[in-house]
Each structure stands twice: as C-alpha cells, then as structure tokens.
Automatic annotation (TrEMBL):
It is found in: Cell membrane. It is a multi-pass membrane protein. This is MFS transporter. Residues 15-400 form the Major facilitator superfamily (MFS) profile domain. Keywords: Cell membrane, Membrane, Signal, Transmembrane, Transmembrane helix. The chain crosses the membrane at residues 50-72, 84-102, 114-135, 147-167, 173-191, 211-235, 255-273, 280-301, 307-331, 343-366, 378-400. Its main location: membrane. The keyword Magnesium does not apply.
Length: 408
C-alpha cells in the first residue's frame, strides 16, 4: 500500500511519475485551446451562436467535472482506481483531440463536456491512489510535486498551443493526444492495492478508527478548497480585462503575467514538503494565504506594472503552498473505503470554485471596479490567513486531532 523503499526518494517511484503525468493532464483540459479561440470564432463565423459557444469551450470541462466527480469517486471505491484512471486517459485523448475533425461548434462543445468527464475520472482516481500508495512525508512531497506538475505542464502546453494556433485554430487540439504517450507507463505500474487485508507498513495515521464526524469536517475542508480556487481563478478570468482597462497591451501582458504565475507556483510547490515540515499545516495555510493577500493588494496599486508582475508571482506562490494540504488532510481524514469519494468531492470543489469565480467577481467589478475587487479579495484572504493561525481555520482541528498528530 505504501511506497516500496527500494525506489528511494518518492520521485524515483515509477508510480509517482505516472501520477504526476496524470496531474499534468488536468491543467491541459481547460486552457490549452485558449490561444485558438479567436481563430475558432472566425472559422465558424457562419454559426449565429459562434461568439457564445467559442467562449464556453474553455469552462465547459469544469462544469462536467463538478457534476461527475463525486459519482466517479463512488465508482472508484466500488470498482477500483486503476481501470478508472486508464479509462479516463483514453477518453481524454479521444474527446480532447476531437476538435481536430468535428464539423461544427455544437459538436466540439459536446466533446468538451465529455473531456470534463474524463478529467473527473483521472483526478478522482489519482487522488485516491496517492492516498493508497503513500503516507507521511512521501504523501506530502508527492502532493506538492503534483501542483508543480500542473503549473509547469500548463505553461508548456499553453505555450505550445499558442504556436500551433498561429498555423491553424484546430491544431491546438492535437496537444491532447500527448496523453496517449503516458498510457504505457500507467498501464504497467498502476495497480489497485489490496483492499481486504491491513497494510503492515502503514503508519498510525492510516490505521486510526473512522471518525463519526469525518463527513462534516471533510465538507468544511472541501468548501475551503472551493473558496481558495474561486479566489485564485480571478487571475486567469479577469487579468486580461484588467490590463486592457489599464491601457496596456492585453495579450502580451496577460501572457507574461500568467507565465510568471505558473513558474512561481511550480517552483514553490517543489518546496512544499520542506516548508510544511518546518511550519506545520497551519503554517503553510497562513503563509499561502498571506502571500495571496499581498499579491491582490499589489494588483490594486494604480499604474504599477512591475508591482503587478510581483503580485502574480506572490499569488502563484501562495496558491501552491495552500493547495497541497487540502489533499493531504482529506486523505488522512477519510477512511480507506471512502478515499475514492473523498477524491471525487475534492475534484468537484476545485472546479466548482473555478466555475463560480467569474460569476461572483464580475458583479464586484461592475460595482467597485478592478481596484475594489482586488482590495476586497486581499481583505478576504488576509482574514483567512489570520484564521489559519488563530483557529487552524475551519478544518475541524479538534476532530482531526486523533488523525493528524501535529497540526502546529
């Protein structure tokens, strides 16, 4: 159930490599085709609904993930994780690359919904497998590497899509076919752990009797993760419009800022394990939310492009520090037989937060402007940082005490 010690560090474990490959795919799902959207709108200009459908192509997978991931979690608990992960990757390749040849926007939109279902399968199985295979520091290290893989993978895939979109607006869809190259390793090394006998190597954190209140505490954790992703997703959904309103070259500024965001997030995620061991879970939440608050405060400064780039780096770093803890705490909290469900609900909470972000931030911008949005967001995240220190936030510190020996 845990890592074979012969592999050495966790990143040398081929199962960890396969799970990190799966993590990189999840970032690819939504944003890869973003550079091709103007070209797709021109390509399907005869469609009277082209403007609306093209803009829905990016968030469409998020809606499917939010709806399907909890049910995928139930299936993972009943039928195992290996088949779900492999099926998800195969479906990801088919649905993701379908835009290469589908004849019109409605069918491409439908393929994006199917792509979201594939992502729900992949992320749910991946989260459960991290809990099945690893414990303690190894689990924390891999969860940090997972965030790093998403950031660096997203940077590489979106950059490549930008080059492809210059040739043809359909060509970025071919990038989804990269997932096929990951299948052989996944097929070889990913196996379902035994479910009927206890693991002699398991640590106490995985053998504590099930807490009767775990569902309530887990729900609070999922809500906090949804709120964190809703706040973070202000960046990719509103940043380009903010730069444009400020009178700067929106595509160039946005591309540079998002690149800094991903590089910063990927780099700090690599350090997550060390920082968490030094500060505890309360510490990484406080540092993460504190960095995000600083970033949004800097964005509120008028006509300060250099400060804005520093802000994106701070927000990327803060998100990378806060995010891994959700998975680790949830896997420790959920009983073994419910890890699939826990993975599904966590996956859904991420995409629900992303989907709700523009719905909530746009009215704030209309009422208070971008500076008002950034200042209010900075205030909210500052309160979350303070709450992390004072009360360990609302993750049920007392209920988790028996499972997590040290939260300080």
């Amino acid at each position: 159930m845990v890592r074979n010690p012969s592999y050495g560090p966790v990143w040398r474990d081929p199962r960890a490599v396969a799970l990190l490959m799966a993590a990189a795919l999840t970032t690819m799902a939504n944003a890869t085709i973003s550079p091709a959207l103007p070209g797709l709108e021109r390509l399907f200009a005869d469609d009277p609904n082209a403007a609306m459908l093209v803009r829905l192509l990016v968030p469409a997978p998020s809606l499917s993930v939010a709806l399907c991931a909890p049910f995928a979690g139930l299936v993972a608990d009943r039928c195992g994780r290996r088949q779900m992960l492999l099926a998800g990757v195969i479906l990801f390749v088919i649905a993701g690359s379908a835009g290469l040849f589908l004849p019109d926007l409605p069918t491409i939109f439908a393929s994006r919904l199917v792509l979201g279902f594939a992502v729900a399968l992949i992320m749910t199985a991946q989260t459960a497998l991290i809990g099945d295979y690893y414990t303690g520091d190894d689990r924390g290290t891999l969860t940090g590497l997972q965030i790093s893989a998403r950031n660096f993978g997203g940077l590489a895939f979106i950059s490549l899509a930008g080059w492809f979109a210059v040739v043809s607006p359909r060509l970025p869809f071919v990038i989804y076919g990269v997932a096929a190259a990951f299948l052989p390793l996944m097929w070889k090394v990913i196996v379902d752990p035994p479910r009927t006998s206890p693991n002699p190597d398991a640590r106490p954190e995985d053998s504590v009797p099930e807490l009767s209140s775990w569902g309530f505490v887990f729900a609070l954790l999922a809500l906090l993760q949804a709120a964190t992703n809703m706040i973070f997703f202000v960046m990719p959904t509103q940043l380009s419009f903010f730069f444009e309103a400020a009178g700067y070259d929106s595509p160039m500024m946005t591309g540079s800022a998002l690149g800094i965001l991903m590089l910063s997030g990927g780099s700090f995620a690599l350090l997550y394990g060390r920082i968490q061991r030094a500060t505890g879970y309360v510490g990484v939440f406080a540092l993460g939310y504190g960095a995000m608050a600083l970033g949004f405060l800097l964005l509120a400064l008028p006509a300060m492009p250099l400060a804005w780039f520093v802000a994106t780096a701070a927000i990327g770093a803060g998100y990378a520090l806060a995010s891994p803890s959700f998975v680790i705490l949830a896997l420790r909290l959920a009983p073994l037989r419910r890890r699939g469900l826990a993975g599904g609900v966590l996956t859904a909470s991420v995409f629900i937060g992303q989907f709700c972000s523009p719905l909530l931030s746009t009215p704030v911008i209309a009422a208070c402007g971008y500076e008002g949005l950034f200042r209010s967001t900075a205030l909210l995240v500052s309160a979350m940082a303070v709450a992390s220190v004072v009360k360990g936030w609302t993750m049920g510190l007392l209920a988790l005490k028996a499972r997590i020996p040290s939260m300080e």
